[in-house]
Amino acid sequence: MFQFLLGVDSSHEKWAMAIKDTLSERLEPDCLVAATKLGKRYQVAIASESDSKLKILEIISDSVIETLGYFYKYEYLSMNLKLPLDPVNYNILLHALTQFDRSSDEAILKNCVQISNGMALDGVYRFRIGLLKERWREIVNLTRENAIYLTDSETFYELIKFLFSSIEARVENVVLSKNNDLFVISDESCRKNLFTSSDINEIVYTLVDLAPLSIAVNKSFENEKTVELITKLFGMQQIDSCSRS
Fold first, then answer.
1. Residues 6+ apart with CB under 8 A from 74
2. DSSP strands (E only) in 10-128
3. CA 3 → CA 15, 31, 35, 59, distances in Å?
4. Which end of the chain is less congested by CB atoms within 10 angstroms, N or C?
5. How many CB atoms lie within 10 A of CB 230?
6. Distance between CA 33 and CA 239 in Å, rounded?
7. What is the pLDDT of residues 56-105, one digit of tens each?
8. Distance from C-alpha of 26 to C-alpha of 34, rounded to nearest angstrom
9. SS3 for 181?
10. pTM for the whole thing?
11. Do 245 and 222 contact (CB within 8 A), yes or no?
C-alpha cells in the first residue's frame, strides 16, 4: 500500500485542513485522505492501493505547493504589514496582495521545496523560503511607502482593481445567496457551495481570494451594504433566483 504523510504544528490547523480538502477533492476515491491531531501537531495522511504512485505524488506535490503558496504568503504579510486602515479594508488589501502574482510565488516555491514524505510544513516556512520572503518584503515596503494614499477611499479601490487585473480567477462565475443565518457563495448553477459563513466579512474576503470573473446576487442575500462594497470591488450582475437541486 502507498502511504504519504505531511505534518504541521497545531497553530496552523487551517493549513492542514485546506490541504486535506484539496487532496480529497483531487484524489478520492482512488486514495483515502485524512487529517488527524497527534499531540501538538496535525498530520495529513494519504493512503492508496492504486498502482499510479507517480501520478499520485505529482497531484500531492502540486496541491500542497498551491495551498502553501497561499498560506505562507498570507501569514508573512499579516505579520509584517501593519497599516492605518479600518479592519475590513485592511483585510481586503491583505487578501488581494496575497493573491497578487501567486503563480510566480508557486513557481519559486516549487523550485526551492521538494514535497517529501513526512515533511514538516511549518519548518519549510521558517527555514526554506528565504527567496520568497524577500519578494514579499518588497511588497510590504512598497505598500507602507504608499500607505497615506490608501486612506483615501477612491485611491484604495483603484489599487484593489489594479491588483485584480493581475490576479488569476480561481472560479469563473459565482452566486451569492443566504440560507437561514448563513451567507453562501456557490457556483453559477447554485448546486455547489464554495464557501459558507455567518460572518459577512468572511464572504467578502473569500470573494477576493476567488477573484471570480462575475458575481451574481440572489434576492435572498439581503445585505445592501455588502452588495455596495462588492460592486465597488468587482462590479456584478444581479439576478432574482437560481435553480437548485
1. 94, 95, 98
2. 32-38, 41-48, 119-120
3. 20, 10, 13, 14
4. C
5. 20
6. 38
7. 999 999 999 999 999 999 999 999 999 999 999 999 999 999 999 999 99
8. 13
9. coil
10. 0.91
11. no
